[in-house]
Amino acid sequence: MPDFKLPHDHNHNLEETELANMPSANQFQVAADVLKLLGDTSRSRIFWILCHCEECVMNLSAMVDMSSPAVSHHLKLLKTSGLITSRREGKEMYYTAAKNAQADLLHHTIEQMIEVSCPDER
Fold this sequence. Notes:
Blueprint: H1 16-20, H2 25-37, H3 41-50, E1 55-56, H4 57-64, H5 68-80, E2 84-89, E3 92-97, H6 101-113
Antiparallel strand pairs: 1-3, 2-3
Helix pairs in contact: 3-5, 4-5
């Protein structure tokens, strides 16, 4: 990062090295895109369910009181983002939360925000 002087001195302690280590705009965009994805109530509910079990589209549709095509649309977006995975068994597709740090963090963040605990952690 080039040397520069801020237009206003507010006597804060943000060091030049901290600014030099600030993530890129593209890295912040990745975070913003995932948060925007979960900004939809239906997708957040579907994701939360899949953090606790593996389910098919028909059962998810019944759980969230939505049509199967609508649930399938949300599942496609969640899968593209890497938050969920799927597996095929015969003609049926089953979905579950991905086993990665990002999905785990978002799962726990949702639960803290709405003040619920995982059924497994009670």
